[in-house]
């Protein structure tokens, strides 16, 4: 069993992630032994950046905007290690759902004209207190929603301005759905030619690989 993969909801058979799984992943990657060593060095070099991020989350009373910005910068380093041109493809175009709404997809890999993998992000799921659980995929939002009373209560926590340093929403459109879990579901229910096969959700200390043919299927890489 690979200790850093968690099978959420047990959608995969219990023997799926045996030792043979790791061998198949390496074979499919196309990396030889020396290339893997070099790649592992790059991954290991991320450790001090991650521990700095974790320390900032734990020791400081950060605003949501601060969490978003700090996590985004760390994600850029992760993407560059993985071979993405993170600076050049950083939210260069928000993904349109229709003429009125868009979703903040950071990067898209295509196969032909069809989206194959979409990379999205939310702020890190780092637990800052034993009494306060980290906010997960099903809680984080791009902005507030609900009735007027609910908006007043949550206004200090979620607002478009907290993502303003990361991406810009064009005029005459809005980010919708605003809850991240609903945004993922919306993407997976698009027509086939616009629907990604996978969504890789970056969350600082955890990463979710979501598969479109079974929307509730997820692997969590911690």
Give me some keywords for this one.
single chain, 222 residues, alpha+beta, six-stranded mixed β-sheet, three-stranded mixed β-sheet, 6 helices, globular
Would you give an account of this structure?
The protein has 222 residues and is an alpha+beta fold. The chain has one domain. Helix content is 32%, strand content 18%. It has six helices and nine strands; from the N terminus they run βααααββββαβαβββ. The strands form two sheets. Strands 1-9-8-7-5-4 form a six-stranded mixed sheet. It has a three-stranded mixed sheet with strand order 2-3-6, with no helix packed on it. Helix 3 (47-59) runs antiparallel to helix 4 (64-81).
- The figure for the number of domains is 1
Order of helix and strand elements from N to C terminus: EHHHHEEEEHEHEEE
- Helix-residue proportion: 25-40%
Rg from Cα: 18 Å
The description of the largest β-sheet is: 6 strands, mixed
What is the overall silhouette?
Answer: globular
- Coarse structural class: alpha+beta
Oligomer designation? single chain
Beta-strand level of the residues, as a percent range?
15-25%
Low-confidence stretches: 151-156
Helical stretch tally: 6
- What is the count of β-strands? 9
Distance between the termini: 14 Å
Going across the major beta sheet, what is the strand order? 1-9-8-7-5-4
Mean pLDDT: 82
